[in-house]
Amino acid sequence: xxxxxxxxxxxxxxxxxxxxxxxxxxxxxxxxxxxxxxxxxxxxxxxxxxxxxxxxxxxxxxxxxxxxxxxxxxxxxxxxxxxxxxxxxxxxxxxxxxxxxxxxxxxxxxxxxxxxxxxxxxxxxxxxxxxxxxxxxxxxxxxxxxxxxxxxxxxxxxxxxxxxxxxxxxxxxxxxxxxxxxxxxxxxxxxxxxxxxxxxxxxxxxxxxxxxxxxxxxxxxxxxxxxxxxxxxxxxxxxxxxxxxxxxxxxxxxxxxxxxxxxxxxxxxxxxxxxxxxxxxxxxxxxxxxxxxxxxxxxxxxxxxxxxxxxxxxxxxxxxxxxxxxxxxxxxxxxxxxxxxxxxxxxxxxxxxxxxxxxxxxxxxxxxxxxxxxxxxxxxxxxxxxxxxxxxxxxxxxxxxxxxxxxxxxxxxxxxxxxxxxxxxxxxxxxxxxxxxxxxxxxxxxxxxxxxxxxxxxxxxxxxxxxxxxxxxxxxxxxxxxxxxxxxxxxxxxxxxxxxxxxxxxxxxxxxxxxxxxxxxxxxxxxxxxxx
Length: 532
Fold this sequence. Notes:
With about 525 residues, the protein is mostly beta strands.
């Protein structure tokens, strides 16, 4: 076991002995220390879910989702973040889902008050906070980002169905050209209709069902695809859009505004060494082991980066399901009939302390359509992956994230973000890696990843994308206090923004983390760790 792990963990080294990527010695080790927090006092309402940093004014913009508002926070002194004002966005939509800032322009995504209607993107001047323009985009704009060239804004329009599933809008990506200024934006919305009726990779899940006057029908490909997150190439010519529920990746040629490919992300074999999970919340133990289950990668946050002239994607594989009044795909292994040939030990597997409690999909797995399950597919991969520009898998972290959190917090392993109960999320998606950002720190490329459930930020050195190395796990959560109280700390980290030393108010690199459950925004200082 390398020295950095001993310094970082201090205890529970045995649980980490099997983590393969920890064998390589990193060139530099870093430490994240929380130095300042802005608290809204609003618990579990989507406040502080998404944050963006404005280096020109040394401000953080933080959404108040359900209130359709935007907090403007001064971090000139990052140890004492201070609210400047709150911008009302109710005139533009029912909620706020995302914010980004570039070159003095703030962009905010505002879905309609009717969730199945087209939403808007609103542009503001960062100095005056006055609106510059508002444009109509697709249904349910869920995430937006500026392209590196600063003249384009890309928006993932999720297009979720209505609660009764009678309406299933098409998912899409809007590309907003602001090269003539944010006061004169030009919108192009990229659709997936060209893939309707085509043969797709079998790991792409097209399975939504909508009910209307004509009866119950499967959604079209374009209706079923739900864009979640977008990464853009360094030259601003290619976009990769994550289609989370569909376990797929769309590749968009930005100049022609077309989707050039739909890539299935495959499934993770939980029987392979290093791919274990803790599958039960009823076994009263940390029990990370192999099971006859497939993990659907279903990533959320995604970042593109360049290594030796090649573009790679880093994805955090959170997982997500469809659970609506009109269509619910969630079930548990213990509630389904297992094929006796595929699962000769079905009775043992379906015990609560084994696989019985594991949440799986009922929409995939009956391969011969005879009413029983020949394969089991769980939501998410409880990992992060690195893929090439075509979506091919290069590296996956296996079960490392659960191994790491088990080592750090054995008494609160797989706790959720709204309670401190041990093993609470083992039957679902474990730690749920949610957000990711990539930056060069002290000469090394680092990936910072937020774990939505147990909380905290995991840091890996990905300078060699084929051999990432664990560096640090920092969690500003305090398990001795009840969630929902100030003393409980940060809960439900969702978004992360790296601030370079050159753009930092204190001349040292920072990491800004938005926490949607605790309603807090915390600033971490990044330093090299003293190993002596």
